[in-house]
Amino acid sequence: PKGGTCGKHPVSPHALTGNSSKIITLYDLAGHEKYLKTTVLGMTRSLPDYACVVISANNGIQRMTKEHIGLCLALKLPFFIVVTRIDSAPPNIRQETNANILKLLRLPNVKKLPYPIRKEDDVLVSAKNLRSDRICPIFEVSNVTGQGITDLMHFINILPLRKNWNELLTQPKEMVIDSTFFVAGVGTVVGGIVTQGVFRVNDAVLLGPNGLGGFRTTHIKSIHVKGVETTEVEAGNDAALCLKKEKRSNIRKGNVLLCPTSNPKSYWQFEGEIVIMYHSTTISDNYEPVIHSNTVRQSARIMLVDREVLRTGDRAHVKFHFLYRPEFLKVGQRLVFREGRTKGIGTVTKLVEGSDPAFLGSSRKTMKEFVREAHAPVVTKK
């Protein structure tokens, strides 16, 4: 910030936004495998410009480190590495960790140019070229001694925006909802990223899709950005909008706010080009992973189009059918699907209107019969 209070007196959100020349939003995502779905949701819904992969100098590269780097590569998200706890790591362990990082970045399926930060000029060069997604800066820091912290903060401060949001200001308004609240005396509040256009107080917007795929009209009562009330919010901002006469129970993650004139549609089915990042055996028809795309998170059934089975590393054109409700999607939207340790990535290539009861019904009937037979009582005749 250019001014404001510090020390024992906390800085209010209004003072922080008013006195800052640049505001950087950081999302702290889980590193444990148990919370991988939360991490995937954070990486897909937040539309981040860059990712920071934190590695302990003592523990080195873990299996989940490779998983997270794989997600960055799948989403084409530029990332940099921060090696922490260098003050407590023995020299030989620290050297081994650095060597393993260099080896990982040079793998054929990663193809990153390691760029260790040694001096201030390296900070400027890496910040300028990180957007090209070719290099990977490596910082070594210690929160105890403060070594490397200044370079890291300088680097984050001068990172440029990766997406040109100004081009989207003239597009029809659109906001993806990732959280809902009920504030006493205020009403239902939704939070999310404004991906297109400009939202203003008292605007009429479409909210949906509901369980049947429909959209309904609602009005914006108030807008808050970074904890500060405002009259409008532009594309590229994370905002909280209070909606008039809406129940929180009728809004879920995956809903969107859209321009009333956009005539939106929701879809049960879509086709996509996918790549299998990992699967222990093979994937065939009727496989049901969880789809992550923006704030959409729902199980879908796969129907293979151009081949019978898929294995790790295979590319294919497939058809997905959501199991529970239609979702709002766009052609070109990137997706990540997972089920246990199975992971894959893809891109939406075609949207298909309507549901296919036969596709879902026959599989469900077969499954019910299988379960009924498996749990049927065994009768023995004497």
Give the tags.
382 residues; alpha+beta; 7 helices; disordered N terminus; 21% helix; six-stranded antiparallel β-barrel; 32% strand
Could you characterize what this model shows?
This protein has seven helices and 19 strands. By secondary structure, the protein is an alpha+beta fold. The strands form four sheets. A six-stranded antiparallel beta barrel has the order 5-6-12-9-8-13. The chain has a six-stranded antiparallel β-barrel with strand order 14-17-16-15-18-19. A four-stranded parallel β-sheet has the order 1-2-4-3, sandwiched between helices. A hairpin with a 2-residue loop joins β15 and β16. The longest helix is centred in the last third of the chain and has 18 residues. The N terminus is likely disordered.
Summarize this, please?
This protein has 382 residues and is of the alpha+beta class. The protein contains 7 helices and 19 strands.
Structural class: alpha+beta
Shape: globular
Spatial order of the strands forming the largest sheet:
5-6-12-9-8-13
Helix content: 10-25%
Number of strands: 19
Specify the number of helices. 7
Topology of helices and strands:
Elements: H1 13-19, H2 36-45, E1 51-56, H3 63-74, E2 79-84, H4 91-105, E3 113-116, H5 120-129, E4 135-140, H6 149-158, E5 174-183, E6 187-196, E7 198-200, E8 204-208, E9 216-225, E10 228-230, E11 232-234, E12 238-243, E13 256-258, E14 269-278, E15 290-293, E16 296-304, E17 315-322, E18 334-339, E19 342-352, H7 357-374
Parallel strand pairs: 1-2, 2-4, 3-4
Antiparallel strand pairs: 5-6, 5-13, 6-12, 7-11, 8-9, 8-13, 9-10, 9-12, 14-17, 14-19, 15-16, 15-18, 16-17, 18-19
